[in-house]
Amino acid sequence: MFGFVTANMKELTKEQQDRYNTVYCGICRQIRCRASQTARLGLSYDMAFLALLLMSLYEPEEQTGSRACGLHPIRPHPWVDNAYVQYAADMNVALGFYNAMDDVQDDGHLSARVMAKVFGKSLPQIEQRFPRQCEAIRSCIEALSQLEKAGCDNPDAPAACFGAFMGELLVYREDHWSSTLRQMGDALGRFIYLTDAAVDFRRDSKKKKYNPFLAMGTGEDWARWEHYLVLAMARCTEYFEKLPLVQDKPLLDHILYSGVWVEFRRAQPRKRGAQ
Length: 275
What we know:
- The chain is mainly α.
- Helices cover 65% and strands 4% of the residues.
- It has a two-stranded antiparallel sheet with strand order 1-2.
- The longest helix is centred in the middle third of the chain and has 24 residues, at 83-106.
């Protein structure tokens, strides 16, 4: 479901690429410290966006360093650390656990069981630190599972569910900006869910798996899907622009105005209506 809120590295300046990778490495490092080495396998670039957004909003002091690691043993990689990098690491692990458990319930695959154990070891501590966010993740995945089992033919229902969860994820703490972040996250979550449905449409059709666009029974309609996505992202960026962001704002702009569309464009047929 994740992997859409990322940067198109080819369009970033060298400075932006370095900043983006430094935050990503910082999250990876914290997953190792706060969970395990193996848990780093579930790292998503979406969490780099989460950390960058909160860092830009709250502007914390940053600890920096550089070192080689198991994934990059030859050349040291720079990293950055602060409370929001650590938060992104915790949310990545929590997401990994609940997603793996959902896969266990759906398919019972051994790989999903193994990853659930990997992520689950540190989950109690994460739930203690961020109970609201973890409950939102659990409730969302449970609700989505019920909607999928029921064959829900209204894409807005599961999209709204995913949006509610993302709204809670963007809110690190309740303060003056929590309402704006929650609204932004809600729209971003809807965008992510519907993008995933569009990108996986043909694969889900072949495997006869649930997909909200398949359930609608209207066939492959990229123009219609793009309309849904444009509306969701327009609402997301409307709230995004209300935040007083300065640090890393160009990088965040790039991700929301360009990077989020990469996978959708890649999956889209060259000719509209192509089968």
